[in-house]
């Protein structure tokens, strides 16, 4: 409806009924949709026959779309490809190395050559450009996507992240809220807003958004971890621990949750803290903070050789961190290696002096 938030029509009513039949992370379509789409490009299977409440047909066959057949797309001559074909080809590219990013970007650009008013292609091109480091052009494409489709929640969300990362938090908040306006259960936007409010010191709004994100998605590991950090900063240690545990139950190899839980445990159970630092490093071998903190813990318990190994790894990963050089200098002094200790102490001083 023109100039209104409402949408009406039989197709939308049927779509809502079809959605209610779908399991999470699945895409169901009716026979009508299969009659309209380019069948050779899609892989699908019949799910079942359903009676949809309020439907004008007594029963409908529903089909699950499994994937896009990239082989069928690749075999199609380029001159026969539509904007939608190029978009699907780009969306199906897996991987993030330079060659794959360039190929995905080419597909989005070809889609836009054929259809400049293609909001999804603008959004995806924005994602690719941001990943490749071109934030200015990425922002332009996000804004083009929103201009063409103001109710596009993903484009609002992606633009908000870019704005937050480029020190424009107030603008970011506006677009997170727009994403939630058009998709009220957009859990990722809720979590990002919670982080913004926490950074602004608005504890009430931050907690509300953390809890709402977990109400909507109880197994959201990142929300549990971030809420745990928030609660720990508020002195709610017991509840924070509960959320770290739930984060790790949802994602056992979640390096940041292991690290945060280890820091909480250090005040009462060094053995358990050590286990979680080691788990964080197994999950993310280049986790400099975890190597440093584990080294400090091992240093304090007298495991000097193991501590030195983790200090050196932390320095290799993060060579400009003066504190790690200072810690290693103290360890080497305790081991009687005074010459090496002095060398690392001088290096720490050089970093601090600039």
Task: Provide a brief overview of the structure.
This protein has 354 residues and is mainly alpha-helical.
Description:
Keywords: Plasmid, TPR repeat. Pfam families: TPR_12, TPR_16. TPR repeats lie at residues 119-152, 153-186, 187-220, 221-254, 288-321. This protein is mainly alpha-helical and 354 residues long. The protein folds into 4 domains: 1-68, no CATH class; 75-182, Serine Threonine Protein Phosphatase 5, Tetratricopeptide repeat, CATH 1.25.40; 185-285, Tetratricopeptide repeat domain (Serine Threonine Protein Phosphatase 5, Tetratricopeptide repeat, Alpha Horseshoe), CATH 1.25.40; 297-354, Alpha Horseshoe (Serine Threonine Protein Phosphatase 5, Tetratricopeptide repeat), CATH 1.25.40. Helix content is 68%, strand content 6%. The protein has helices at residues 10-21, 31-36, 70-75, 83-91, 98-114, 119-131, 135-148, 153-165, 169-182, 187-199, 203-216, 221-233, 237-250, 255-265, 270-283, 288-301, 304-317, 322-334, 338-353, and strands at residues 28-30, 42-50, 60-68. A 3-stranded antiparallel β-sheet has the order 1-3-2. Helix 6 runs parallel beside helix 8 (153-165) and helix 10 (187-199) packs antiparallel against helix 11 (203-216). It is elongated and about 80 Å long. The chain starts with 9 loop residues before the first helix and ends with a helix.
How far do the termini sit from each other? Answer: 61 Å
Helical content, roughly?
A: 55-70%
Mean pLDDT: 90
CATH class of the largest domain: Mainly Alpha
| Shape estimate | elongated
Strand order of the largest sheet: 1-3-2
User: How many distinct folded domains?
Assistant: 4
Gyration radius, in Å: 26 Å
Number of helices: 19
Low-confidence stretches: none
User: Main beta sheet: strand number and arrangement?
Assistant: 3 strands, antiparallel
Structural class: mainly alpha
CATH topology-level fold name of the largest domain? Serine Threonine Protein Phosphatase 5, Tetratricopeptide repeat
Query: Which range does the strand content fall in?
Result: 5-15%
InterPro entries: Nucleotide_cyclase, TMTC_O-mannosyl-trnsfr, TPR-like_helical_dom_sf, TPR_rpt
Pfam family, one: TPR_16
TPR repeats: 119-152, 153-186, 187-220, 221-254, 288-321
Keywords: Plasmid, TPR repeat
